[in-house]
Specification:
The structure holds two protein chains of two kinds. Chain A is mostly beta strands. Chain A has one helix and five strands; from the N terminus they run βββββα. A five-stranded antiparallel sheet of chain A has the order 3-2-1-4-5, with helices on one face. Classes of the chains: A mainly beta, B alpha/beta.
Chain lengths: 68, 346
């Protein structure tokens, strides 16, 4: 149940945002996080549950590449 | 390459400690990662990883399964996450109910449940899970979704585990995404080595090494391996949403029994969206009719790390992922299901 996938925010529309999961785009809910376009978030069951720290973008990209 | 270094270091440190150690991973997704990457096989013999009560479907109490299945059989449309449809109860599973004509919808997220509720009246979303999914259900309720809450809080379960003298644990691998919501401070009260970890193989290995470091130095603290996501204060916005919609109550956990202040009830303010309140008469009737299901399934003991799945007589014989006899075999995060899929066979 805790499986979550990191994604990059590409467009924000109120409580919703379009995110990019390594090429696949999906609309998610961002009402429980404070984010802007370009931020990375962890997505779980259609919600961004937390913003990922920018300092770790390299680490996040490796994570995306290798999968969970 | 990094993994190799960590494994080497784990072996050196484990040798230094030179006694048997039991670490419990508290999240089902950790259990899956451990099995998928064969981590148990590469650890020194004195480190044993045991699975805890971190699979929400597995810890859902029998009575709640029966009530929701009873509601479905009485004609109330139910929406829930996929895992929940196959847990067998005394009235069968939700999937059995669906096969008998009940309306049961599997959804990926709360938004999908809201969409269905616009077309199908009386729809009830069965909210299962810990703090991570609870915040989403809270959002759903604020957006007019009717909910039956089986939501639970994680830290009280850790407290119950630690109070059980039969369970010996030397350290916990704490859940990653639950911690993203509740933060790290909440664990500080537990006098035991703990590491919050991410879900990759390296994350888990690093968490094991960090637990060993704490044991060597005699420390009992909470460390955060998953700092790329988990913040000390957690997700305040999500917690605010949860407490706005839910209030704390006692809850029954499979295997652990009733744990004080470990469950979440919908607040009176949202009573008109609380399936427990709306269908209270029907629920009372279902409760009267439920006869406890007799089974020798040992899921409750597996969930506490008291036995391994293989020690249950049903495991791999009459109980398989295609024909689960108990909750631990149903969910892909259940320890029996994981053991069946990844481990060598009896």
């Amino acid at each position: 149940m805790c499986l979550a996938i990191p994604a990059k925010i590409i467009k924000i529309n109120g409580q919703l945002a379009i995110v990019d999961f390594q090429g696949a785009k999906k609309e998610i809910n961002i009402s429980i996080v404070d984010v802007k376009v370009g931020d990375y978030v962890m997505v779980h069951a259609g919600f961004a549950i937390e913003k990922m720290e920018k300092d770790n973008v390299k680490e996040i990209n490796a994570y995306l590449k290798n999968g969970i | 390459m990094e993994s190799k270094k960590i494994i080497k270091s784990i072996w050196e440190k484990a040798q230094k400690i030179n006694r048997s150690l039991r670490f419990m991973e508290l999240c089902g997704t950790h259990s899956e990662s451990i099995a998928k990457h064969g981590i148990k096989n590469i650890l020194p013999k004195n480190i044993k990883l045991i699975t805890g009560p971190g699979c929400p479907v597995c810890v859902t109490d029998q009575s709640e399964i029966d009530i929701v299945t009873g509601l479905a059989l009485a004609g109330i449309p139910i929406a829930c996450y996929g895992d929940a449809t196959n847990i067998p109860g005394s009235l069968g599973s939700l999937e059995n109910a669906r096969q008998n004509g009940a309306q049961v919808f599997i959804v990926y997220d709360v938004a999908e449940a809201i969409e269905i509720s616009k077309k199908i009246s009386n729809l009830v979303f069965w909210g299962i899970g810990f703090e991570t999914t609870t915040s989403m259900t809270a959002w759903g309720i604020k957006n007019n979704l009717t909910v039956f809450s089986s939501h639970k809080l994680f830290p009280p379960a850790m407290e119950a585990l630690m109070a059980n003298k039969k369970i010996r644990v030397d350290g916990f691998i704490n859940p990653g995404h639950v911690s993203a919501i509740i933060g790290t401070k909440v664990y500080e009260k537990f006098q035991i080595p703990q590491v919050i970890a991410g879900f990759g193989a390296e994350d888990v290995l690093l968490a094991i090494e960090m637990l060993l470091d704490q044991i060597i130095s005699g420390e009992k603290k909470v460390e955060n391996e998953y700092a790329r996501l988990v913040k000390k204060e957690g997700n305040i916005k999500a917690r605010k949403l949860i407490s706005e919609v839910f209030e704390i109550r006692n809850a029954s956990w499979r295997g652990l029994g009733e744990i004080k202040n470990s469950g979440l009830k919908i607040r009176k303010k949202y009573q008109h969206l609380d399936a427990e309140f709306i269908h209270r008469d029907l629920i009372a009737k279902i409760k009267k009719e439920i006869k406890p299901r007799k089974s020798i399934c040992r899921c409750g003991e597996v969930l506490q790390g008291l036995i391994e799945s293989k020690q249950c007589k049903l495991f791999g014989k009459s109980c398989t992922p295609d024909n689960p006899q108990g909750a631990c075999m149903v969910s892909r995060e259940g320890s029996c299901n994981i053991e069946y899929r990844f481990m060598s066979f009896p």
